[in-house]
Amino acid sequence: MFSIEQLQAFVATVEAGSFSAAARGLSKAQSVISQHIINLEIDCNATLFERTGRYPQLTEAGKQLLPQAKAVLNQHQRLTNSALALNEKTPTEITIALDEGIPFKTIASIISKLQSKYPYVSLEFLSASSHDIIDMLNSEKLITGIIFSELNIPSYLDYECIGTVKFDLYVAKSHPLAGIRCENMDGLRLHRQLLLRSRNTQTSSFQLKISPEIWYADNYFVLLELAIQGNGWCLLPNHVALDAVQSGELVKLPLEFEEMGWLANVDVLQHQRHSNQKVFKALRSVLRGLL
């Protein structure tokens, strides 16, 4: 019967595109990966890859097996993480990372509920982009992250939605776009866009590249200052833009379609190796429905 190692080699080859790339990703010799897949094909009594071209291509049998193999690997990962967590004690320090665009004031107002239940747990708060937080969760540099929803959440993370944050398009009062009413989004392509991306150059799934000319920043407050100085237009959380709008430095972009706002879901993510611990369950509980 097939093994976990065979399924790992199979899925890694599909995702990496070749046996050699899969071997590098799994830190194995290419011959080991090839043998795992050959053995898997023998166990399944089916050819999983067409090998006539430069790169292996999934056969119909391979396409049918792939989602099942991924499901087994995900469940195996969860079982491994649960087993490792069986004897873990309540940590003395918890690090919570928060996307800069999520209002920390709201989070801070309820965190005392966790402290009253776990008074000896020390809390550390970090601020980063959502993609950077996912990377830190992967390395277990932190256990809990609060981010804007992304389309692709790694399988080693458990997550749930805790509310939404409203975004709108903003521009400086002195910017040319502030004096006209754009009939559609095409009018924005004529002006520089200010866009958020992570330190490893990933952009959020709802931060769309619209303009051919783009300046990047790794947090919303840098975008805000760039916009106030008239360097371009950008998508900002309403609470981040509020003070600048009230002072007259920034305006909501005048558009023919007036309700162009985005409601971004906010998720709390935890590494599945720790998410079943009581303290992390309690943290999720106080965060539910917060926004």
UniProtKB/TrEMBL annotation:
Identify the residues that the record assigns to the HTH lysR-type domain, covering every copy: 2-59
Give the highest taxon in the source lineage.
Bacteria
Q: Which UniProt keywords apply?
A: DNA-binding, Transcription, Transcription regulation
Q: Which Pfam families match?
A: HTH_1, LysR_substrate
Which PROSITE patterns does the annotation name?
HTH_LYSR
Q: Name one GO molecular function term.
A: DNA-binding transcription factor activity
User: Which InterPro entries does the UniProt entry name for this protein?
Assistant: LysR_HTH_N, LysR_subst-bd, WH-like_DNA-bd_sf, WH_DNA-bd_sf
Q: Which family does it belong to?
A: Belongs to the LysR transcriptional regulatory family.
Protein name as it appears in the record: LysR family transcriptional regulator
Classification from the root reads: Bacteria, Pseudomonadati, Pseudomonadota, Gammaproteobacteria, Alteromonadales
